[in-house]
Amino acid sequence: MIEHHVRVHPSADRLPREDQLAWKLATVATGTVEPDPESAAMAVNRVIDNASVAMASLVRRPVAVARAQATAHRASTPGTGARVFGAQGRVSPEWAAWANGTAVRELDFHDTYLAADYSHPGDNIPPILAVAQHTGRTGEDVLRGVVAAYELHVALVKGICLHAHRIDHVAHLSAATAGGIGALLRLPTETVYQAIQQAVHTTTSTRQSRKGEISSWKAYAPAFAGKAAIEAVDRAMRGETSPSPIYEGEDGFLAWMLDGPDADYTVWLPEAGEARRGILDTYTKEHSAEYQAQALIDLARRMGEKIPLDRVASIVLHTSHHTHNVIGSGANDPQKYDPKASRETLDHSVPYIFAVALQDRAWHHERSYAPERAARPDTIALWQKITTVEDPEWTRRYHDPDPQQRAFGARAVVTLDDGTVIEDELGVADAHPAGARPFDRPAYQGKFRTLAENIVTPEAQDRFLGAAEHLAELSASDLDGLFPEVDTEAVAAYDAKLPKGVF
């Protein structure tokens, strides 16, 4: 790996493009060769993972709205268009990326990578797959694009913190997606360089989408970034240029959105010819909740049998800065304790999640968030007794440079009404690569079958899994097999009930 220092430069410096981060990212993308076996296998796992959560969200309102918008934009020419989960026919690729990206993100249930910033690298897959279908690329091309996108995404998330400045993490996503599409299409470095800069410039937004009363935009934000990345690549391919240098410019991303004129970041990128293995640093979710709640759900399931819940006086979760301030009581969001809060808010509320997991000793992507579940008086009473505090040791563990030592959990201190204290802790979720039950291919397959139950027939489930597992061998026409067959008439009947929009 090569260490790249990224800092702000005045325009008078005329920073050579070869010294700019966007060029270096583009060089990694366009220099990506066919993935090594481990990276390719993990990419297959994430294709399965994305389809799993997309199937479970098909008749959720934000997904249906995105699908309705997409199906109003039939395939553009030249090209054959791209498929949309749950719909017939083909649509223009940027709109397929919009609909499929929303379906993948809606339940907050696919993969994650946490370092200096947050990310869901699986969000790169829908736009890459959409462009591949539209342009007649193969499964082998898709794999190359996905592995390249993950490589860029992981490098940016390791090196540049966005959330400290309340910038949403999709700014890193759009750069990675543009690079992944460039790798997919084997575009020149110059073209990918321009596309990355356009994508970053047009998708920088604030974290208000994940603050307070969290709305459905949380599901749309990464889909919007993917759509914008496709459009940026299209413009760059036509010879259009971009704000440059987007990262280092004196009026650019670092200077005004992040650490300011004195900004100085370090981004590690692979050398020419070095394997792209960033995807292996990422991990998926066993539970439908924000990633920093994964270990806490497992901890609560373990502790629930040891705690007389009707005698709890208080529960304090000692955890990292990120967990305390983003999904804990340190966020100072009263909505995190509101039984009438949206699902999007509740899946970013550790007090709520820990309370329900303690009581149920289980977690379900729908039942655990049902309004009647959140409104149970005994749940509300327990929920209000749960707070978080930042523990410097947990913050240090969160940022440990060794992936095997990095921890995203907490220590739970439960005080009963007679003063008895019960404590337990868990560093990583059971499904994490360093956890008690690391997710493997059978686990991904099981997740798909569970979430596709009653939506995809067993025979259609088998066909999808067979196609996904042979991704590298799929022809352009075979890529349709990555879209599980569902009862599209039933989905269309749900869609017909939606209010109409401009399209």
Automatic annotation (TrEMBL):
Domain of life: Bacteria
SUPFAM superfamilies xref list: 2-methylcitrate dehydratase PrpD
Span of domain MmgE/PrpD C-terminal: 287-470
Pfam families membership: MmgE_PrpD_C, MmgE_PrpD_N
Family: Belongs to the PrpD family.
Alphabetical list of PANTHER family matching this protein: 2-METHYLCITRATE DEHYDRATASE, 2-METHYLCITRATE DEHYDRATASE-RELATED
Protein name (database record): MmgE/PrpD family protein
